[in-house]
Amino acid sequence: MIIKIVTKTSITGVETISDDQDGCDIEYEKEYLLWFTNGEVTMCAFKKLFEMEKQIMFYVDNFEFFLYKMRLFKDCTFEFVECDSEGDDRRIERYIDMENKLGGCDVARGVEVSFKPDVFRSIRTSLTRPDVYMCEESMSTAIYAKLSKRYKYEDLKRMVKDDYANARFMNILDFDDDFDRHLKSLVFAGVVKIYGGMFGRWSQ
Fold first, then answer.
1. Are residues 73 and 134 in the same domain?
2. Between 19 and which of 37, 51, 159, 184 could a Cys-Cys bridge form, CB atoms 3.0 to 4.6 Å apart?
3. Mean per-residue pLDDT for 99-121?
4. What is this structure's pTM?
5. Which domain holds residue 49?
6. Strand blocks (E) in the chain
């Protein structure tokens, strides 16, 4: 199944469902755009549309949390599309499956995933200001905070681990797995890039 990530919160002829609503009723004949913030309503709508094998479109405010919520649907194909003023959409870039390329310290050489600026800004904002998007600080925000400059994998991991005692979200027993999982998600989202074996923010 193809899941589209769009750049507008409303599209002509498409009903928008957001997480601000109390709930949602899905009608088979209608098309829907799911405006994802925390997933309370939109993930319920997504599962209904998924079962119906209907077209699925998301507008994503909080990309970090969206990736976490969608972790069980990694077999789906994601397409990032840009909507013009008349509501049509045009493919920007297909989802790239990076899981097989993120297997250790030497990860994903040359892999690039890019987003249009408005989507990219939402990712960065959700990492620097998680409170804005109704989510708590996480390992991803801790990793991103350290990447004010580029670091090798082991150096980055050590710095984040040194701070674990002061962070409520970290469990030292699960640290290695959590660190790798969150770093993979950041690279997949395109907000962190690999520069010759070193990790840095996309804009660096």
1. no
2. 37
3. 38
4. 0.46
5. 2-109
6. 2-5, 15-18, 32-36, 56-60, 77-83, 89-94, 151-152, 192-195, 198-201
